[in-house]
Amino acid sequence: MLAANIESQAMYGRIGYVYGYPHKKAYRPLTPPRRLADVWAEEPRQALFCYVHIPFCHQRCSFCNLFTFVPADTSPVTVYLDALAREMEAYERILRPARFRRLYLGGGTPTFLNSDELRRLAGLLHDTLGVAPAQTHSCIEASPETLDEEKVGTLRELGFQRLSLGIQSLVAEELRQVNRRFDFMQNRRAIDLVGQAKFPHFNIDLIYGLPGQTEASWCYSLDAVVDSPATSLFLYPLYIRPLTGLDRRADALPCPTPAQMGRMYDVAIERLTAAGFRQLTMRQFRRDADGEARASATGEGSDDLEYRCQRDGMVGLGAGARSYTQALHYSTPWRMVARNIRSVVEAYCRAMQAGETDVRHGFVLDADEQQRRHVILSLLYEGLDLRDFTTTFGVDAYQSFQPQWEALDEEDCVRRDCDCIRLTARGVCHADIIGQLFFSERVRRLIETYEYDA
Q1: Which among 408, 399, 398 is positioned nearest to 436, based on CA atoms?
Q2: Which of 131, 142, 289, 341 sits a CA distance of 20 to 30 A from 117?
Q3: What pLDDT was estimated at residue 229?
Q4: Which residues make beta-bridge pairs with 53?
């Protein structure tokens, strides 16, 4: 399977991203539901990740399958922030004392909120959970049409350490093809505004494989962001998912083939390396100091309580947010169609208002699933420490997954440095395929039988 998928360049537009395990399509209703206090009773809480989900956008891009919708005339933000406040209070009661090391505001578009709403959200996080953007590794996602000088100033005032800007392309026709129909010049203005604000870290997202995109137009966007103040880039291959606008459109321009997308990836590596960027994952590139880049990417640092995704928990706040404990991952039901997303958000708000915080939808990880998750997340980032794995699980990682390691060795996708297994450059390129090698049959079956909403 590995060799066949590499040969067909399946990582470009076919496999799908692997950035965690298990995928949310493996989640199912939990019977019986779990009490929130029971879920977290035995969990370490000295190095937690706080994720806040804002499920609103001004427009829905036609490649998007995220949990987000475009509100009608009446803003839902006040009611949603009220619900977040109730959920934070519930977590504060069961987690105290807790220490949060990371904060991420994702979406949707968190900067859909105006400055006063952002200040209120930051105040709730600080006053209820003790989470402050200036005192954690903090990031907020933004879209160009939602930023102005006042809002960017507010985000700097609140202390956000990193802003991630979803540009996707700097070619107007490519953006029009995926329903990003705001004034094209807002892309340039947003880059300038964020650059002038001098966030410690400034990320820009680009997508390759867009309808009508060519190698030349891709290089134009690449060169533009290389010349920008961005300190990091995320380069995403376009995946056309079920029920998205691109999946349903018949009039879109042709997308590049997997082979053409592969060439775009190779060109990006060449240009970014020449410009001083370091590649950290298949998608992430940084051009700051080596140690700083590695610490940010892996969750490691000089502080022993630094967050590590293989070990530490995530508290997800909001409809669509996922929470991770060692043995249970959970969220509200995942939906893709806007009307169904809206219904889930409304149900979440009613539940929080009523104080209903039981966990009803998720995935239980037994020892085998925990080991698979540890291997996948380690390989995707800093590499798999074999001694740490044995200490954690009491088994040998190489023996437990010997067929996978042999296949990866044969394809020159991994290398072993003493007691650490890392991806080679070839392995990094095929990381999404490699991640799926370690999926259990149970997870594969759940993903394959997931019923998409209509």
Answers
A1: 408
A2: 341
A3: 96
A4: 106
